[in-house]
Design goal:
Elements: E1 19-25, E2 33-35, E3 39-44, E4 52-58, E5 68-74, E6 79-83, E7 86-91, E8 96-98, E9 100-104, E10 124-127, E11 131-137, E12 151-161, E13 172-177, E14 183-190, E15 196-203, E16 214-221, E17 228-235, E18 239-242, E19 249-252, E20 269-270, E21 276-283, E22 293-303
Parallel strand pairs: 10-13
Antiparallel strand pairs: 1-11, 2-9, 3-6, 3-11, 4-5, 4-9, 7-8, 12-22, 13-21, 14-17, 14-22, 15-16, 15-21, 18-19, 18-20
Length: 307
Amino acid sequence: MTLPTQPGSPAQVRRSQEFYRLKQPVLSAGAIYEIDSSARAIYIGPDSDLAEVRLGYFNPDADALNDMVTADVSVNGPIVGRLDSLLDQQYGGLNQEARIIAYPVDIVDPTYQRPTGPLAVPARRENVAPQIDLMVALKELPSIPAVRADRTLRFPRVPFNNDAGVDNDGSTDLVIPIYGRRMVTVQIITPVGVGHVMSFFIAALQPGFTSFPKFLGSITKAGQSITDTDSVVFRASDQYNLDEITGVGNTSAPSTFDYTENAGMPLPKCKGMADLLIINIAPNFEDPPPPGYSLVDLFIKLSDREE
């Protein structure tokens, strides 16, 4: 059996580099990468959307069917120590050269579509492709970063229809990978006279079927006489309440209630971490915008830190 690999994935060291960097978009859920060079440390790089990657490497002391050892690398969990890529050996169960093999632990779905009812289908959807960034150090390092760099995304002039179509509700979905991110900041710039409803969801992907997202809340904007800017911040540790009538979420400080079995109080709802952030921009039909379509600008920053 031969392992399937994503095009362009073999990792080879050239020009006397002191590290190899595997950095490219992840095109499918089954992407597997082969690393030809031995390493002194392997860790998640600064530009990775993926938060967890699994490594397979050769164990010469095991029997032929168990000679691949696996270990997970995460944002704050690097592997430090020598890992050998042995091209003169073969994995017994695969009949393939004993390279170091890397593949995502995080589930990847580059074409994720938010499940909706027939009257709430978005008119358009934009999926941001997730990226793997894996650093393979070829010498001992004095230190290894414990977090990724912040990622900034800018979406200028995002369109949405001001009326519903035959088979859609006129809205737009943005689907953004946030694997393991702890804080999301969104700035919304709304031009003069534009009304909209902006809703926020997070989704934890599952293998084999489309996951239903968790609704976090929404912002409703009426048409303004001046350009207006709103800010939304989500932290993984935030607890929030959901108004059962309006469906609008709001953040709150951690509760001091006693949540023991006999207290009779429900657990607070918590945002937590997820795989995808979905932002839906829809027309505000209570304050109808002009015919045609409208545009808004979005600035989004993703961070591994909550401060």
